[in-house]
């Protein structure tokens, strides 16, 4: 789904329809594609799920926080 939203020209209008998004494999969220899509989400709830909370590149803070 992330790849599809990344390729859509107007993914913002689709994301605006949701108040909650659940991101599986959220340890990938520091990847540019994930980051760009998730940054567009303006809903109330954003949950991330992962079985790999520690990253080799040290980007764990990106997984655990969002302004």
Automatic annotation (TrEMBL):
Domain Helicase ATP-binding: 1-67
Record bears the keyword DNA damage: yes
One Pfam family here: ResIII
Gene3D superfamilies noted in UniProt: P-loop containing nucleotide triphosphate hydrolases
Gene Ontology MF term list: ATP binding; DNA binding; helicase activity; hydrolase activity
GO biological process, one term: SOS response
Keywords: ATP-binding, DNA damage, Helicase, Hydrolase, Nucleotide-binding, SOS response
InterPro entries membership: Helicase/UvrB_N, Helicase_ATP-bd, P-loop_NTPase
Protein name per the record: DNA or RNA helicases of superfamily II
Protein's organism: Streptococcus pneumoniae
